[in-house]
Structure formats: structure tokens, C-alpha cells
Amino acid sequence: MSLEQERAKERIAAELDRSRRYSNELTIEALDEAELLAQHSPLMSPLVWDLAHVGNYEEQWLLRAAGRREALRPDIDGLYDAFENPRAERVTLPLLRPDEASEYNSRVRREVLDTLDGADLSGAPPTSGPAAPSEHSLLEAGFIFHMVIQHEFMHGETMLATHQLRRGAPVLLEEAPALASVVAPASREVLVPGGPFTLGTDDDPWSFDNERPARTVDLPAFWIDTTPVSNAAYQEFIADGGYLDPRWWSREGWEWRTRREVVAPAFWALENGLWTRRRFGRHEHVPPNEPVQHVSFHEAEAYARWAGKRLPTEAEWEKAARYDPATGRSHRFPWGDADPEPRHANLGRRRLGPTPVGSGPDGASALGVRQLIGDVWEWTSTTFYGYPGFHAFPYAEYSEVFFDDGYKVLRGGSWATHPTAVRSTFRNWDHPIRRQIFSGFRCARDVDRA
User: How many structural domains comprise the chain?
Assistant: First the structure.
């Protein structure tokens, strides 16, 4: 085995361990059996479903598909099929109880580590895949292990959203690190020059099929906000009657707002003239200098229109994040190609919320745009679709089945996103009405608009 493969396997084993510890911290180490079996919102699964689902997914891909091993528990495949069982119905299924799910996950992991030890990870990552992916194509550059690791971390973020919706006393520890003083950016917005740049990727071993293939995109110049929209700025929109004025809303957005009687971001309440919020069982005043979160696409779009701006397109967001005008290159992250460090971005649940707007100057893009990675997912104006030349790999249900169905693209990750599960090419998507996710936004505008 080459030194490069040995190091790759060491990293995979470490990330597998981190992802499982992350899942356990949010389930069996945080709540009792009754809470884990309960459905805290029809929008979300019972937490015990997520716990066993990540193990079942791991078994199917790392043992059966890549390891060519016999199924450990084929009898539970149907229970943990996300496409066969809507979230609101999963509580009615004969799910594994927490201790059974934990034991099953441990058994799967033991065999996965044995599979990893004997796997051949040589070769470049796949740029496309056949309809029935081969063991070789799955193992190239460790792709299938990277997919499973990111899948479990994604469910960790989903489980955090369930914790936010849960009622009851706090169970997640607040151990926020001390923050350095925030130095505001020199300007509120940055001019992104017109011209071509590389969108997407062909060679990132952690990338998913919807990030591929890379292509050259030529964009006109545009302005983009240096930071995400803050709570204080969003409160100005509310105070100006933004939720009550249909001028700022799309037809679909206005229908949603009036039907749901929405007057503020999710979890906010007005008490004695001050905005408060519920956050993981804690009741507190809304901090004015944090990026606004728990807003839908419709709310973000209405704010941008009220402010005389618009939401950036997905391609604009990625160019602001990746493009280096000095070299013409598109980097993996705003700050370059190195993996994220705490000084770059607020990721991985280091704190239970975003850092103040203007934080992380070391993580700024070459154009000077901050907080593009971490803190809050950022809504874009783009409907989720496959890039030209897209090929589903290794299964259509990861992304292809969601194309052109009204889902809007979000970019950049949040404070709850693990560093291995985000990069400047990573594409998230959700319904435009969703607010339980850790979503915010920043604005953009055309160069010919004052």
C-alpha cells in the first residue's frame, strides 16, 4: 500500500469515527428513549430513525456495494428507505429501539473498518458513473467512503434541526469559544468583475454528482454583499411593514406568508417591544449582530426586493466564493484550497449558532467577501437542476430526482455543517418555504443599479 493510500485510509477512519460520535452525541447521549422515539415535528423524523438510517446506509454502500458482503439486516432496509417513508409517517414504523440501533451501528462499523483495511483506493475520482456502478468506480479515490461520511454528517445537521424544533429543557451544551473582536469590512458590498470562471468541479474526491462536471461560465459584473444580512438589518424590514406589503413578495411567497400568517423568522416572538427567540430550549433576546437565520426563500427574496437588491444566482455566489482575479483560478474554498480551520469559518457545531457578521477575515474570498462558508446556509435565486453533462452517480435518488421540482439552491453551509460536508462547489437544496433549516442569505445587485 502506498503512503498516499495509507494516509487517505487514516483520514477516512478518523472521519468515520467523528461522524458516529457526532450522531451519538445528538441521540443516545442526549435524550432518553421516549424522546428519541417521539416525533417532535411532522417536518422531521424521530431521532431514532436518523440514528439507524445512517447505519443502514453505511451497510448498503460500504459493505454490500463496495465490500461485496452479505446483508446484515436486509429485513430493515424498507424501514430506513428515505424515499419510501415520508418523514411524517416514520414514527408509525416498527423502528429499532435506541439500544438496538446503537448495537446495529456498531456491528456495521466493525465490518466497515475491515473493508476499508483491504480496499484499493487508487485512481482518480469518478467524473461520471455507469448506471450500475462497479466496485472499482465506487472505491476510486475513496469516493464511496467520502459519500457515506458526508451523509452521516448531513444527518447530524438534520438532527440538530430536530433538536431546535423539540420542546423542553435544553440538552445541548453551550460551550461557545471566546470571540475575537470583529473588524467590519471596509465596504458593505464588493464588485465581482465580469468574465469567465470555472463553475463546479471534475477532480474533488469529496464532491457529489450534482457538483459535476466543471464548466466555464461567463457572467456580467455584479455587486454582492460582503456579509450575510444581520438580524438588525432584517428587523428594519419588519419595522417598515415588510411582511404586510405585497409589493416585496412574489405571488407564491405572498400566498405562503398570508396563509401561514408569518410575521417574522421562525422561532422569533415580539415581547414588550423587543424581539426574542427560542434556541435549543433557551429563551433569549435576538442578537442584532448575528446573521439572520431560519428564514425561507420567500422571506429572503422579499427582503432583497425591499432593499432594492436581489438574491444572487447560484453561479454568482460561487464566483464570489471561488474566483481569484489575480490568477483566474477557482479555488476549493474562498481562502484557497486548504481544509477549513476555525479561523476560516464557523463550522462543525463549535458553537450553537452563527458568529457576528463581519467575522472570519481569514476566511474571506480573494474578492473580499466574508462568511461564505459556515454560519448560515445562503439562499440563491436558482432552481436546483443538473449541470450540462450531468450523470447520476452512484444513484439517482441523491440528486437527480429533485431536479426542476421547485427546490431552490442554498450554498455555503452553516455553523451546524461539518467541514467535510461543505466546500465552495457544494450544492444544497430545499423547498422555498422551509425555515427549520439554518438558512440565511446575502443580497446582490446589477452594476447598473444604484
Answer: 2
Phi then psi for residue 125, to 5 deg, are -65, 150
Task: Give a yes or no: residue 373 inside a domain.
Answer: yes
Q: What is the pLDDT of residues 88-142, one digit of tens each?
A: 999 999 999 999 999 999 999 999 999 999 998 886 666 555 445 666 688 988 9
CATH number at residue 42: 1.20.120.450
- Please tell me the distance from the alpha carbon of residue 402 to that of residue 395, in angstroms, as a whole number: 12
Range of the domain at 233: 186-450
d(CA 377, CA 440): 6
Cα–Cα distance for residue pair 356/288, rounded to 1 Å: 9
CATH code of residue 383: 3.90.1580.10
Residue 362 to residue 355: CA distance in whole angstroms? 14
Percent helix, strand, coil in the chain, to 5, is 35, 15, 50
- 198 and 119 belong to one structural domain: no
- Record the cell numbers describing residue 289, joined without a space: 449582530
Alpha carbon separation from 449 to 220, 247, 250, 428, 444 (Å, rounded) = 13, 19, 20, 29, 10
- Indicate the helix (H) or strand (E) that contains 275: strand 274-279
- Burial of 235-254, coded b for 16+ CB within 10 Å and e otherwise, reads bebbeeebbeeeebbbeebb
Considering the domain architecture, whether residues 212 and 151 belong to the same structural domain is answered as no
Residues with Cβ within 8 Å of residue 395, at least 6 apart in sequence: none
Looking at residue 266, its amino acid is A
Entry pTM: 0.95
C-alpha 386/C-alpha 72 separation (Å) is 34
At 390 the three-state DSSP class reads coil
* Within a domain: 175: no
In a domain, 180, yes or no: no
